[in-house]
Amino acid sequence: MTNTKFHQLESSHNTAYNTLNQKIMDLKQHSEIIENDTLLNVNKEFQNIQKNVSMALADLELHIKDNSRKVAVTSCVSNEKTYNTGTSIKFDNVRTSIEIKNLSTFKSTGKFSCEVEGLYHISVYIVSYTARSEYSIYKNNNKLTTTYSDTAGHIQTSAGAVVMKMNVGDTIFVIPDFNMHVYADHWSCITTAMIK
């Protein structure tokens, strides 16, 4: 073998070696890029899962808190008087209040405003001597139920009760359908209680 052929063969071998070496380095670099991209994607996916789990836990805690929350108020009329047709009866003598924040509005207007969404039981009893004693329980200006008693001038108690789903901001109030004398103190009261 001549020197020239040897050099050609050596040169060809070196070129092939360098090309192969470069391809191995390119493949290694490409593999590292893919590995880094995969690691970044896995990290992002993990962060999304972590965020979703945190949000789900916070939502669950809120539902547990709402389901364990107790809301109730019992309040009676403080001043005996005749209420005119269409006037809300004011149950302004609060006897029991649990988790009710806006009692002042309730006491001044006679309207209970729901602060926590849920299923509520509302019961009302009123003592009157009005010959035709009739009043209705309203939710957001919609009549739910009416009680009636014809006392013929004698003192008598009439009572009404409803169970309903209430949303935040819904109001409950009681209005006489005719002018009606209402006895005060423990004789005429309303109870609103969240049952679920």
From TrEMBL:
SMART domains recorded: C1Q (SM00110)
Domain C1q positions: 63-192
Classification via InterPro entries: C1q_dom, Tumour_necrosis_fac-like_dom
Pfam families documented for this protein: C1q (PF00386)
Source domain of life: Eukaryota
Gene3D superfamilies given in the database record: 2.60.120.40
Listed name of the protein: C1QG
